[in-house]
C-alpha cells in the first residue's frame, strides 16, 4: 500500500494545471483556468482548474478531484498506475512494502521493466518501417479497407518472412531482453548431438498489431498471418509487461471516442477494431484471444458506464458471451451497465457495417440485449418452466450466477423477475440463493448535480475545513464537542477531516485531503461538490470559521437556557447553571460584536 505521506508529498510537487493542460485546452478565467470538460460533451466551458486548491471541478457533470483522480478518470489508469505516472513526471519513486520487496530487488525490477519497454518500442518502430517495404502486406490492408491514416494511428507494421529479420532492428540480437519480451524464441541445442542453441523470430510474415497499455507504451504484439496457415493470429506470450487477461487491444486509441459516444464496443479481433475505426466506430476494443476477464471489464468501466459486447450469433459466440456475462456480473450496478449484441452467424462487425451501413449497425448497438435479459435467458436455458423440475434446475443455475451480483436495485429487479418466472415467493428465492433482503447500494460518487445552496452553520464549518485543513488547529476540544452535539449527523465527517489533517500535517490542502478521505472510504462527495465553488482568502475564511463556531455555541447555549427556564428554575443547581450559561452567552456575544467592529 502506498503511504499517505507519499501521496500528499506527490500532490504538493505536481502542478495540476500542467497535468490537466496536457489533455485539455485551458484559458485563464480569474484565479482559475477554464476549459471544455473532457468527461462529457459541452459547447460552453464549465470545467475549472484551481492552481491554488490543486483541484479540478466541472459544474456541468460534477466530476472533480486531484491530479491523481484526473489521470484515473481521463486515462483509465488504476490508482497505483496514476500515482506511478505522476511520480515519474517529477522524479519521485513510489515506495513499496519494504518487507515484501527489498530495495535492491525493486531497483532491479524497475530496470528490467524499463529495458523491456525500450525493446518493445524499438521492435514496433522496426515493424512499421518494414511495412513500407512490404507490398503484399500493404495490399492486404488496402483490401480490408485500412487507410494509411488508420494504419498510422494504430501503429500497424509487418514482420518479414525471414527467421531472424529482427537482427536488422537490434544491434545485439542475442540480448536476453528480446527473449524475455517474447520477440524471439530460443531453441535449446542437444548436447548429445553437439548442437548449439538456435534463436529465431517469433513473428514472421505477419501483419503486426502493437498492443499498448493505458499509458500508450507498447507491451505486446498480435500478428495476423498473410497467407493461409495456423495459427491465424499469434499473440505475444505472457511477459513481465504483458498479461493477456489484463489488457485490451485498442483501448489506448479508443479512449476519447469512448467518452464522446458514451459506450465501449467489445469485439473479438484486431482487424474488427481497426476496420470499425475506419468505418466510424472508433470506440471499439478487442479481447486478446482469450475469454473476457473481470480485470478487463473493470478497465472498461473506468472509461464509461456502458459496455457493449458484440459476438457472433452461433454457439461459439453464445459461449463467449456467457463468459463475458460471468466476468461482468460482479461489476454491474445501478449506474454501470452491460449489453450484448449478437450478429447473424455470417457476419462480423466489419462485414455487417460494410453491407448494411453505419446507421444500421448503430441501431443494433442501441438495441443490444441488456445484461439482465441475457442473464435470465441463461438461467432459463432449455428448462421447461411448466414443470417443478424445470423451475428447480433454473433456480440451481441462478444460484451460481446471481451469487456474483452485488447488492443493488438492479439485483433486486432481477430477483423479482426470477421469482415470477420460477413461481417462487421473493423471500423464499432470496433465502435459497443465499441473499439477505436486497438493499440498494448507493454510489460513492453521487448523481451529478449543480452545487446546492449553503445550508447550516455546521456545514459551513466543514466546507471551510475542507478548503483549509490547517484550520483544524483553531478548534478546541470544546468547539469540536459542541459542533458534534449541535449536529451529530455531521460529527462523523468532521472527525474524519480532523483525523486526516492530524495524519497529513501542515502541508495538507484540498486535493490531498479529498484523496485521503476517498481512500479511507469516507463519503465526502456532496461536501466536495459544495466546497469547490467557494473562493476564500485564508484570513477572511478563518474569521468566518470562528464566527460560525461562535454562532453554533450561541445556539447551543440558547437551547439549554430555554430548557432550564421552562423548568421554572426550581432548584439552586438549575439557577447556578442558568447564570453560568448566561455569562458564557454574553462573553460570546461581546466577542462577536468586537469581531464585527474590526471587519
From TrEMBL:
Ranges where the Toprim domain occurs: 262-344
Reactions it catalyzes: ssDNA + n NTP = ssDNA/pppN(pN)n-1 hybrid + (n-1) diphosphate
Single GO biological process annotation from the record: DNA replication, synthesis of primer
Annotated HAMAP family: DNA_primase_DnaG
Family: Belongs to the DnaG primase family.
Domain comment (free text): Contains an N-terminal zinc-binding domain, a central core domain that contains the primase activity, and a C-terminal DnaB-binding domain.
Protein name: DNA primase
Amino acid at each position: 500500500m502506498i503511504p499517505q505521506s507519499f501521496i500528499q508529498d506527490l500532490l504538493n510537487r505536481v502542478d495540476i494545471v500542467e497535468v490537466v493542460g496536457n489533455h485539455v485546452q485551458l484559458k485563464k478565467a480569474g484565479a482559475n483556468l477554464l476549459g471544455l470538460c473532457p468527461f462529457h460533451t459541452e459547447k460552453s466551458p464549465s470545467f475549472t482548474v484551481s492552481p491554488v486548491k490543486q483541484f479540478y471541478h466541472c459544474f456541468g457533470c460534477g466530476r472533480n478531484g486531484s491530479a491523481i483522480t484526473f489521470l484515473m478518470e481521463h486515462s483509465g489508469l488504476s490508482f497505483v498506475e496514476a500515482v506511478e505516472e505522476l511520480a515519474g513526471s517529477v522524479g519521485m519513486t513510489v515506495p513499496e512494502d519494504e518487507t515484501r520487496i527489498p530495495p535492491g530487488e525493486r531497483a532491479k525490477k524497475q530496470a528490467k521493466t524499463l529495458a523491456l519497454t525500450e525493446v518493445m518500442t524499438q521492435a514496433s518502430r522496426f515493424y512499421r518501417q518494414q511495412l513500407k517495404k512490404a507490398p503484399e502486406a500493404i495490399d492486404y490492408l488496402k483490401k480490408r479497407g485500412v487507410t494509411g491514416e488508420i494504419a498510422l494511428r494504430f501503429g500497424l507494421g509487418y514482420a518479414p518472412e525471414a527467421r531472424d529479420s529482427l537482427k536488422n532492428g537490434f544491434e545485439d540480437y542475442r540480448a536476453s531482453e528480446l527473449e524475455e519480451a517474447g520477440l524471439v524464441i530460443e531453441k535449446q541445442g542437444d548436447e548429445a548431438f553437439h548442437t548449439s542453441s538456435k534463436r529465431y523470430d517469433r513473428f514472421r510474415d505477419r501483419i503486426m498489431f502493437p498492443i499498448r497499455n493505458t499509458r500508450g507504451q507498447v507491451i505486446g504484439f498480435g500478428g495476423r498471418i498473410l497467407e493461409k496457415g495456423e495459427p491465424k493470429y499469434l499473440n505475444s506470450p505472457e511477459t513481465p509487461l504483458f498479461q493477456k487477461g489484463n489488457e485490451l487491444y485498442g483501448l489506448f486509441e479508443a479512449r476519447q471516442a469512448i467518452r464522446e459516444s458514451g459506450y465501449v464496443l467489445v469485439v473479438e479481433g484486431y482487424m474488427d477494431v481497426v476496420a470499425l475505426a475506419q468505418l466510424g466506430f472508433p470506440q471499439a476494443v478487442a479481447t486478446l484471444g482469450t475469454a473476457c476477464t473481470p480485470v478487463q471489464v473493470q478497465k472498461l468501466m473506468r472509461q464509461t458506464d456502458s459496455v457493449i459486447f458484440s459476438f457472433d450469433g452461433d454457439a461459439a459466440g453464445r459461449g463467449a458471451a456467457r463468459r463475458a456475462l460471468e466476468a461482468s456480473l460482479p461489476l454491474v450496478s445501478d449506474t454501470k451497465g452491460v449489453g450484448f449484441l449478437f450478429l447473424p452467424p455470417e457476419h462480423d462487425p466489419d462485414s455487417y457495417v460494410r453491407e448494411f451501413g453505419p446507421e444500421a449497425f448503430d441501431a443494433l448497438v442501441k438495441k443490444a440485449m441488456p445484461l439482465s435479459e441475457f442473464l435470465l435467458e441463461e438461467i432459463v436455458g432449455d428448462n421447461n418452466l411448466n414443470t417443478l423440475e424445470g423451475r428447480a434446475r433454473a433456480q440451481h443455475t441462478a444460484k451460481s450466477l446471481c451469487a456474483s451480483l452485488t447488492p443493488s436495485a438492479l439485483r433486486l429487479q432481477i430477483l423479482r423477475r426470477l421469482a415470477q418466472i420460477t413461481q417462487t415467493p421473493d423471500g423464499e428465492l432470496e433465502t435459497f440463493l443465499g441473499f439477505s433482503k436486497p438493499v440498494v447500494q448507493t454510489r460513492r460518487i453521487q448523481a451529478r448535480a449543480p452545487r446546492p445552496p449553503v445550508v447550516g452553520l455546521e456545514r459551513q464549518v466543514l466546507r471551510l475545513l475542507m478548503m483549509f485543513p490547517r484550520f483544524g488547529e483553531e478548534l478546541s476540544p470544546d468547539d469540536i464537542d459542541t459542533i458534534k452535539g449541535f449536529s451529530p449527523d455531521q460529527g462523523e465527517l468532521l472527525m474524519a477531516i480532523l483525523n486526516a489533517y492530524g495524519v497529513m500535517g501542515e502541508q495538507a490542502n484540498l486535493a490531498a485531503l479529498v484523496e485521503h478521505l476517498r481512500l479511507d472510504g469516507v463519503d465526502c462527495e456532496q461536501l466536495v461538490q459544495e466546497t469547490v465553488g467557494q473562493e476564500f482568502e485564508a484570513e477572511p475564511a478563518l474569521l468566518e470559521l470562528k464566527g460560525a463556531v461562535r454562532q453554533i455555541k450561541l445556539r447551543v447555549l440558547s437551547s439549554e437556557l430555554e430548557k432550564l427556564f421552562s423548568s421554572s428554575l426550581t432548584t439552586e443547581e438549575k439557577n447556578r447553571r442558568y447564570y453560568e450559561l448566561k455569562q458564557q452567552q454574553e462573553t460570546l456575544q461581546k466577542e462577536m460584536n468586537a469581531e464585527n467592529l474590526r471587519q
